[in-house]
Amino acid sequence: MSEIADLLPDLVALRRDIHQNPELGFCEHRTAARIAAELRASGIEVHEGIGTTGLVGVLKGTREGTRSLGLRADMDALPIHEQTNLPWASRTPGTFHGCGHDGHVAMLLGAARVLAADPDFAGTVNFIFQPAEEGQGGARVMIEEGLFDRFPCDRVYALHNWPGLPAGTISTRPGAIMGAADKFRIALVGKGGHAAIPQDSPDAILAAASLVQQLNTIVSRAVPPYAAAVLSITEIHGGHAHNVIPAEVMVGGTVRTFDPAVQDRIEERMRAMLKGIEASFEVECALDYDRYYPATINDPQAAADALEVAATVARAELAPEPAPTSEDFSFMLQQRPGAYIWLGQGTQGHAAPLHNPHYDFNDGVMETGIRLHVALARHWLG
Question: What region holds the Peptidase M20 dimerisation domain (predicted)?
Fold first, then answer.
């Protein structure tokens, strides 16, 4: 596809412009406007304001057909201060594209240009540009606002860069590919009092210390050894003076699973432990448990098709195991069959992991990503 090579300088410049001007979830106004202008310049029908800042470009093929395909790119940045010192580094302090969504946007726009220039396919491609992937559920909001009712998709794909894979390698798998993400906050409430008279004040700090130890036994003792799960304590807040027993302590963290039954088991054990803590330490416990992203589960046939198509454009390999990180494309896969696909970008100079202040998208893999998008569309709508 020599036409892709001709587009790359412009697309790299576009990607770096988006990188320099990052926007957080549901605030991607400049980014969305830039995308809309690019789509319209290619003659693609544009629908804006879906899920606040989300938008969809609709392209119909020149051949008669009823099939439809959704290709999704996320747009939002992260609340991290960039430390790359690159010429195109973020101009917005404390906000930067540390997950490569700028690259995802550029690759999907490149595919849109290629397909619009030669729409020799049967059916419709919906280019879905989604806001607020980073923990705010932008995909869910777009769906709630009628995404798939307004823009039917018989199948849907999403492509995400993956520093852990060699540059240009494409990988996916049937079934679970990303974990469900739960977050929890536990308030342990006693009475508070003088540290020299502990017998008069239920000790919320002591209760929290015991709770942290108990929570870390759940995966090893309540989850079957053949099931994968992660429970991590990431926050403890309580106390402000050396001679005061605080009235309240907060313990927080995250749970990652791939099986709803395991997810249920972990929450059940957590709630049972809190009852024991209340009885043992004479404190009250309140649990806020939020299952904010479900597991990302690929349709087996869609994943198999993606690997078959990927092999025609680059090196393709079956992912041996899912990742415990999460992705709100999971909401789209609950509604429509499809697959989440990894595009390797791990080369010298691009080895920083996602969500790291030294990360930058590898522009060298952009052509592979565009070719994959185009090939998936032509395969499904052939």
Answer: 184-275
Q: Which of 15, 34, 123, 21 is nearest to 77 (CA)?
A: 21
**289, 96, 90: which is closest to 184 by C-alpha?**
289
End-of-domain residue from the set 249, 270, 292: 292
CATH number at residue 254: 3.30.70.360
**What is the rounded CA–CA span in Å between residue 311 and residue 59?**
25
Residue 104 annotated as binding site = no
Candidate from 249-258, 284-293, 338-347, 348-357 with smallest mean pLDDT: 348-357
For residue 122, give the CATH number of its domain.
Answer: 3.40.630.10
The first and second tokens of residue 50, run together, are: 């879906």
pLDDT tens per residue across span 56-91: 999 999 999 999 999 999 999 999 999 999 999 999
Whether 229 and 333 share a structural domain: no
Q: Which residue segment(s) compose the domain that 194 sits in?
A: 180-292
Closest CA to 62 of 116, 120, 126: 120
29 is known to lie in a ligand binding site: no
Contact yes or no for 123/316 (Cβ under 8 A): no
Report H helices in the chain.
2-20, 29-41, 101-117, 138-144, 147-150, 204-215, 218-222, 260-281, 300-310, 329-335, 366-380
Q: Return the number of other C-beta atoms located less than 10 Å from residue 232's C-beta.
A: 13
355 belongs to an annotated ligand binding site: yes
Number of H helices, E strands in the chain: 11, 16
Q: Is the pLDDT of residue 360 over 90?
A: yes
The answer to the question of whether 134 is labelled as a binding residue is yes
